[in-house]
Amino acid sequence: MAILSEEVRQKVEDGLKGLKEGLKLVVFTQEFECPSCGDNRMLMEELSAISDKVDIEVLDFVGDKEKGEYYKVDKITCPYCPTAVQMAHEMAMESPLITSDMVEATEFPYLNHKYNVAAVPKVVINETIDFEGAVPESDYLKHVMRTGR
């Protein structure tokens, strides 16, 4: 499915015709992409398909850490968030008393405000218990058990 409209695609194609040298797009992502990471990767792939002068290299932020350092990539979807989300979902699958949900913080600013998100991952339990950052499973479980249910 194309991201660019035909009109925009044509303008990009016309603009790329003026390239004297090739253009290399380097896209950093990770195994568990955030919704906007996937869209970004798809857009870059679409751009590279418009002209043979545009090349794309898709790299994994964690797996290709050396290249990330080379390109000075220091901001990406949090590498700890997928682990926190997976842990919550696994607990929900194990117990009918637990439900879990994942929210992309950048796409829901009103939730950022409501839960005072200053760092990610941020876990909120029953609206009363919350913690931030990567924590071991045993600590995660201690927070869950604090709910008293």
What does this 3D model show about the protein?
- There is one protein chain.
- This protein is of the alpha+beta class and 149 residues long.
- It folds into two domains: 6-70, Glutaredoxin; 81-143, Glutaredoxin (3-Layer(aba) Sandwich).
- The protein has helices at 6-16, 35-50, 65-70, 81-94, 109-114, 137-145; strands spanning 23-29, 54-60, 122-125, 129-132.
- Strands 1-2 form a two-stranded parallel ribbon. Strands 3-4 form a two-stranded antiparallel ribbon.
- The longest helix has 16 residues, at 35-50.
- The radius of gyration is 20 Å and the shape is elongated.
What does the largest sheet look like?
Answer: 2 strands, parallel
Reading side by side through the largest sheet, how are the strands ordered?
1-2
Number-wise, the strands total 4
Q: Radius of gyration from the CA trace?
A: 20 Å
Name the average pLDDT: 86
Low-confidence stretches: none
Class computed from helices, strands and strand pairing: alpha+beta
Could you spell the SSE succession in H and E letters?
HEHEHHHEEH
CATH class of the largest domain: Alpha Beta
What share of the residues does DSSP label as strand, in percent?
5-15%
Number of helices: 6
What is the straight-line distance between the termini?
46 Å
Oligomer: single chain
Total domain count? 2
Helix-strand blueprint:
Layout: H1 6-16, E1 23-29, H2 35-50, E2 54-60, H3 65-70, H4 81-94, H5 109-114, E3 122-125, E4 129-132, H6 137-145
Parallel strand pairs: 1-2
Antiparallel strand pairs: 3-4
